[in-house]
Amino acid sequence: MAAPMNNVCKPSSERLQVNTTSFQKKTRSKLISIPGTRPSVQNGQLLVSTGVTSLDYLLGGGLAVGTVLLIEEDRYDSYSRMILKYFLAEGVVCRHELFVATAQESPDDILQELPAPILDDVAVAKPVEQPRLSGEPQDSLDAMKIAWRYQNLPKVQSALASSSRFGHYYDVSKTMEEEIRQAATFHRFYLPDHVTPSSEAHRVESYSALLKSLQEVIQREGFDLATPMSKSRNILRVGLHSLGSALWGDDLCCHDKPSNSHALTTFLYGLRALLRSSLSVAVVTLPSHLIQDRALMGSITRLCDNAIALESFKGSERETNPLYKDYHGLLYVRQVPHLNCLASQLPDHKDLAFKLKRKQFSIERLHLPPDLSETVSRVSRGELAGVASACGSSASGNKNLDF
């Protein structure tokens, strides 16, 4: 039986219309190219470096733009403040704009303490120097040697890491040169300049004034993605120091049942919503060891995308414990982001420690004796009861361990 001849006499254009489908070739979306950023290999999210290479590795390659990193401060706010300065120094080197908010001291005090970069690839406008004589020291050659030394350092000791270099290295024993700082753009928020401490609603006004000031900077400087792009895009790095403390007028650290416990959580909710629609990334430090309400602390952690906690050995029994002689504290990863993926990027190791070398802050895997490491891992899984006795017997009679 012959095939029907209904379409034989129709024009070729009509036959083509019949055969067309709704399927289209998939094309890659164009990524925003900004200096000091790179796309994530897991989800394509735009990443920036925290300034600490080992911390970038723990967070899945860096901080995603539009997210919040919460740092639970150590008791003396020494190392948490240092990570914040690393984060801001990386922004200065990458020519990102900075927004720094403080309550106790002026933001300029933090900016003047930024560590000096030790790599020689920082573009700084310097006057032309005369060629040195053969007998004079060659500072540029020494800088290149230092750069070569630090170029291939592992991200996290005893852990597999990417060999690609992202971010810069800094010397904490020196402060950044003034000419490098002046090349960056700073936005400052000092609480006494915006809110009077005598106000009854001080804690509410302080956070609302901070959020309003940040929103004005994002809209005025063109970081909002909703506004048309009139100039080249850039990243805004937001550093918020010691939120939740009494200096911000908050009573979270003063009472077991604070009278206005939702002030900080409301601010963090608005902060994350503001960053999601802008080319901004924030680092927030918080004195969590002073907050008595652990349920409230859990809500604060869940309102942030990334969360780490620092436990310093300074002033504790672990400072003189020979098991921790190579470290200055422990680092805990509280939360990792869930962005554009079903499963988040988890760290390879949970037993992490940090130490401040002669010139560099680094995060490493905690090395303990094999029997003690097995005890600690079993305790973390909840397989052992009587933690103190188990750890004490594994540490050769040292009963003062606290895990």
Give an overview in words.
- Helix 8 links the parallel strand 9 (236-240) and strand 10.
- 28% of the residues lie in helices and 17% in strands.
- The chain is of the alpha/beta class and 403 residues long.
- Residues 123-150, 157-164 and 379-403 have low confidence and may be disordered.
- The relative contact order is 0.16.
- The protein has eleven helices and 14 strands.
- The chain is globular.
Write the layout of secondary structure elements.
Blueprint: H1 12-19, E1 37-39, E2 46-48, H2 53-58, E3 63-64, E4 68-72, H3 79-93, E5 97-102, H4 107-111, E6 115-117, H5 139-151, E7 170-175, H6 178-182, E8 186-190, H7 202-220, E9 236-240, H8 262-276, E10 280-286, H9 294-302, E11 306-312, E12 329-335, E13 352-356, E14 361-365, H10 370-380, H11 387-394
Parallel strand pairs: 4-10, 4-11, 5-8, 5-9, 9-10
Antiparallel strand pairs: 1-2, 2-3, 6-7, 11-12, 12-13, 13-14
Helix pairs in contact: 7-8, 10-11
Structural class: alpha/beta
Main β-sheet description: 9 strands, mixed
In helices, the fraction of residues equals 25-40%
User: What's the average pLDDT?
Assistant: 77
Strand content: 15-25%
Provide the spatial order of strands within the biggest beta sheet.
8-5-9-10-4-11-12-13-14
Number of helices: 11
> For the CA atoms, what is the radius of gyration?
26 Å
Which of globular, elongated, flat, extended, rod-shaped describes the shape?
globular
Stretches where pLDDT falls below 50 for ≥5 residues?
Answer: 123-150, 157-164, 379-403
Number of strands: 14
Distance between the termini: 85 Å
